[in-house]
Amino acid sequence: TEAETAISKTATTAITTTEQLPPFEAPELDDPVLQRSTIDKIKAKIVGRLNVAFELLDKEQDYLRYLCLLLQTFKKPMLEIQKKISASKEQIPISFGKIEQIIQLPQKKKKKKKKKKVLCVD
């Protein structure tokens, strides 16, 4: 049948193509890619990049902690005593900007990964 002929031609082509590939040759031991100094340099670069990434994560966590501290220590108490300090409804939110939205950004990303961690405790 035509289907068997097509399969036979495909199999023959695959075998012919495989035979045309050059055999695998292992690199020489004195190849610059395999030299210990090259490998050590690559390792050092990777370790350096990981250190930078961890430092960025650490600084972001510190930043979020400070924003939570600012929110809990100043903004919320000021909103509670707003009339006593003669502040208008707009002055306090303007003074503190969008702290809540900034704090919620990492939480939204974690919800997508199905991990939930509360950054600020009331």
Q: Describe it for me?
A:
- With 122 residues, this protein is mainly alpha-helical.
- The chain has helices at 2-20, 36-80, 91-96, 99-112.
- It starts with a helix and ends in a 10-residue tail after the last helix.
- The chain contains four helices and no strands.
- The longest helix has 45 residues, at 36-80.
- The mean pLDDT is 76.
Short description:
This protein has 122 residues and is an all-alpha fold. The protein has helices spanning 2-20, 36-80, 91-96, 99-112.
Helicity, as a percent range: 55-70%
Low-confidence stretches at least 5 residues in length (pLDDT < 50)?
none
What Rg do the Cα atoms give? 31 Å
Report, as a whole number of angstroms, the end-to-end distance. Answer: 76 Å
- List the total number of helices: 4
- Strand and helix order: HHHH
Major sheet summary line: none
Structural class: mainly alpha
Write the layout of secondary structure elements.
Blueprint: H1 2-20, H2 36-80, H3 91-96, H4 99-112
